[in-house]
């Protein structure tokens, strides 16, 4: 029996960069068997239907080869999809189109090593206080804005919100690993970022332009399409 034709596509829905109590985190769809959507058009259509900020298609679970889509774009690199998929598949290396990404776990957090230049361009916009960031309205579609402010500069604690500006239904991104990499590279220090409703992202700059990005991941549900 062809279970793909009978039952459709199985998609694991994760929450990535959860708070310490397991709440929040950015939703991620992972299609473990990428063969059921073998071409870019069908993958883009499913990502649009699901409506998550990103959906990952796993092309080789042993070698960690993955393909990442927003509802409207294919991405060479994205932070929360790689952290989530590496956790789900228990990988030591994960390979998006941008390059080889090493993974480690410390029990609570899953960490990836990536280069800030792999991240898509973002406007990093600093505000004077966390309250100002909290009070922001969603801007009109346009540039991709990562709004941030220090909560406690000495401790590296940051309040952030992300506005993709794409007009694809994602008005605000709950937790954005790529933007956290860019901010870490710009500031040159380890950060503890609270983003969105309360998601937590940890970063640490490493040697040769590498930045570590870590967060908690949980499996929310499995659905069929």
Automatic annotation (TrEMBL):
Enzyme active site: 54
Gene3D superfamilies: Diaminopimelate Epimerase, Chain A, domain 1
Top-rank taxon, per record: Bacteria
Parts forming coiled coils: none
InterPro entries associated with the record: Phenazine_PhzF-like
Pfam family, one: PhzC-PhzF
GO molecular function list: catalytic activity
UniProt-recorded name of the protein: Phenazine biosynthesis PhzC/PhzF protein
Organism (species): Streptomyces filamentosus
């Amino acid at each position: 029996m062809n279970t793909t034709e009978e039952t459709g596509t199985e998609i694991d829905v994760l929450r990535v960069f959860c708070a310490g109590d397991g709440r929040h985190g950015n939703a991620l769809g992972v299609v473990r068997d990428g063969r059921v959507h073998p071409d870019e058009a069908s993958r883009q259509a499913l990502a649009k239907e699901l409506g998550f900020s990103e959906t990952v298609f796993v092309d080789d679970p042993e070698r960690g080869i993955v393909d990442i889509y927003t509802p409207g774009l294919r991405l060479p690199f994205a932070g929360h999809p790689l952290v989530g998929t590496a956790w789900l598949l228990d990988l030591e290396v994960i390979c998006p189109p941008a390059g080889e990404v090493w993974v480690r776990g410390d029990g609570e957090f899953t960490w990836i090593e990536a280069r800030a230049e792999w991240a898509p361009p973002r406007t990093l916009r600093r505000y004077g206080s966390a309250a100002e960031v909290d009070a922001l309205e969603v801007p009109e579609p346009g540039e991709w804005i990562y709004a941030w402010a220090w909560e406690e500069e000495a401790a590296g604690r940051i309040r952030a919100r992300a506005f993709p500006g794409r007009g694809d239904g994602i008005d605000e991104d709950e937790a954005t690993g790529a933007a956290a990499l860019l901010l870490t590279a710009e500031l040159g220090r380890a950060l503890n970022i609270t983003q969105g409703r309360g998601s937590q992202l940890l970063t640490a700059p490493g040697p040769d332009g590498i930045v570590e990005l870590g967060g908690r991941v949980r499996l929310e549900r499995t659905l069929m399409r």
